[in-house]
Amino acid sequence: MPKSCCVVGCSNHNMKDKKLSFHIFPIDPDRQTKWVNTVKRVEPDGSEWTPTHTTVLCGEHFLSGKNRF
């Protein structure tokens, strides 16, 4: 199944670069909140954005293979 990075302006997807890793948002509420705050994304109507169980970040948003959140 295709995966696209959720970061606004990032065009990475797993069909384009098979070697790029993709990471789902943590289930832990505290860690998930940190990730959401770092992504700084909002809904088109200006409301708070919430990731779904299929939302992913590509590996380019992590430092040296370790997440920076």
From TrEMBL:
<keyword id="KW-0238">DNA-binding</keyword>
<keyword id="KW-0863">Zinc-finger</keyword>
<keyword id="KW-0862">Zinc</keyword>
<protein>
    <recommendedName>
        <fullName>THAP-type domain-containing protein</fullName>
    </recommendedName>
</protein>
<dbReference type="InterPro" id="IPR052224">
    <property type="entry name" value="THAP_domain_protein"/>
</dbReference>
<dbReference type="InterPro" id="IPR006612">
    <property type="entry name" value="THAP_Znf"/>
</dbReference>
<dbReference type="GO" id="GO:0008270">
    <property type="term" value="F:zinc ion binding"/>
</dbReference>
<dbReference type="GO" id="GO:0003677">
    <property type="term" value="F:DNA binding"/>
</dbReference>
<dbReference type="Pfam" id="PF05485">
    <property type="entry name" value="THAP"/>
</dbReference>
<keyword id="KW-0479">Metal-binding</keyword>
<feature type="domain" description="THAP-type">
    <location>
        <begin position="1"/>
        <end position="69"/>
    </location>
</feature>
